[in-house]
Fold:
Amino acid sequence: MEKQTLSFQAEVKQILHLVTHSLYSNKEIFLRELVSNASDACDKLRFEALDNSALFEDAPNLEVRVWYDEQARTITVRDNGIGLSAEEAVQHLGTIAKSGTREFVARLEGEQKKDAKLIGQFGVGFYSGFIVADRITVESRRAGARPDEGVRWSSEGTGDFEVETIERPARGTDVILHLRDGEEEFLSAWKLKSIISKYSDHISLPILMPKQAWDEEKKEQVTTDEWEPVNKAAALWTRSKSDITDAQYQEFYKQLSYDSEPPLAYTHNRVEGRTEYTQLLYVPAKAPFDLWNRDKRGGVKLYVKRVFIMDDAEALMPVYLRFVKGVIDSADLPLNVSRELLQESRDVKAIRDGCTKRVLSMLEDVAENQKDKYAEFWAQFGAVLKEGIGEDHANQERLARLLRFASTQADAGVSLADYVGRMKEGQEAIYYITADTLAAAKGSPQLEVFRKKGIEVLLLTDRVDEWMLSHLYEFDGKPLQSVAKGGVDLGKLQDEAEKKQAEETAAAFKPVLERLKTALKDRAKDVRATTRLVDSPACIVVDEHDMSSHLARLLKQAGQDAPKGQPILEVNPAHALVKRLEATAEGDERFDDLAQILFDQALLAEGGQLEDPATYVQRINRLLTA
Ligand code: ADP
Ligand code: MG
Structure:
């Protein structure tokens, strides 16, 4: 073929424009793309050679070589893979075949602001070479073709390219980048090596570079004729489970996570079915310092056929599993997949669901078989896992089984299933209380009647608990019920005699209640007699559908507006202080002091703060000195 000049397809021009104008901040990815193409070319040769082993010619060892030439200002990526015929060079390097890429480009073109980061995260392919090069020359010979059937393709990456036939004995492809002015940083063995190990360490072919050695005469590092591999060349996760030792899994985890501690658990599987992928997922033993940063990503790396695509893989793991580290390697996703396309892809959704379920079964397994380990896990990550109750409705039931709490029976480790197993005859609900600290929860007056009757109450003290409970209404068919909300209805747990007595006491107590209501009309929505108290004179509760005072306090601390609803004061008619109120004559001003103190104390007992502590102290002192 005589030398010809041909024009790029319109979409290629768009890509070229985008790549050279928007990807400047992430230019090193060109090497990832070229190495990945070289590796693909070797895969293709291997595949075609299945039917025709002659294609291997005299070079059966497939490999990629990368080097640079300081004088010529070039970087070359060479492979001995399938190669390109002249027609293929025109076709593959002048047009875009894949509809996904075309769509993506069309969309980016339509957007006003082109997010360089976004573009950087999708494989831009061969054309990314033009980020750093103002001319790319490709020389190639297809496997099986004659030495005089080689091709040279060359372009400045603007409107057109040249092709011609050349003499080329070597099978495979050289991609030669002629660097732009200002891109000298890439003329460095160290630089190229570090990019390769960052992006291409797990390419399963050897990637070779000329060995550097110290020259005593010149007193500098020089390039030798010897070649050495710069990648590890065997992705751990592609190997079969039975060939990998526990120590190797742990070592890989360290590289992946920069965590010095061994992981708590891991799972490694090849998933087959509608979409094929390999997952190697780890649960760390210790929470990272930035666990609470929900925007932080990077736990799970996405590879497509062993080529690193991104570690910003929100699409691959739900936020509440952000502590999981690992690798997902898909056999089906296109390499040049954008983050946006990722989120819309059904394959990705299937991978995400599959990986979520995997992590949950790994946790279930630890919870079931290694209780101490699970307790460690829970202490580190429990509060994060709780976010899943609200975020992942499909797995809510499984997540609920993984929850662990403190309760009036144990300071930690109580599962909802344990609780249900211990429920009293006739008990219909799972009772809980929320508070700022375990001590405050334990000391809560609302618990008294439950203690007296030996009914377990869960003590919830994580900030996320209130939010979680707004999504978890029941477990195993039993409703979850706050002991600090609404009236206590112990249902069948209270016998008829008790109920009758309570009603009688309440009736006899009515006049005092009326006086209390008047005294506290600015502070309490209602005042009523209760049977939930044993040792305390009074407690604060909120209506069934009102926000708990604990949540209201959390919101206030976070600087948000909490609805200013008034609470209900419940008093214990049997308590001495309340009896004293009863005995205080109509018109006696001490009644008002006592009423206010009763309310203030109830507030303090549940961890609240007084708006006017000074007045509270004065009232107490008046009574003490009376
Ligand atoms: P993709 O790799 O996703 O197909 P690229 O833009 O990276 O997209 O490459 C476009 C095409 O060019 C490839 O599909 C392949 O046909 C061809 N190609 C690129 N590099 C090589 C190479 N080193 N050897 C053989 N063919 C190549
Ligand atoms: Mg490619």
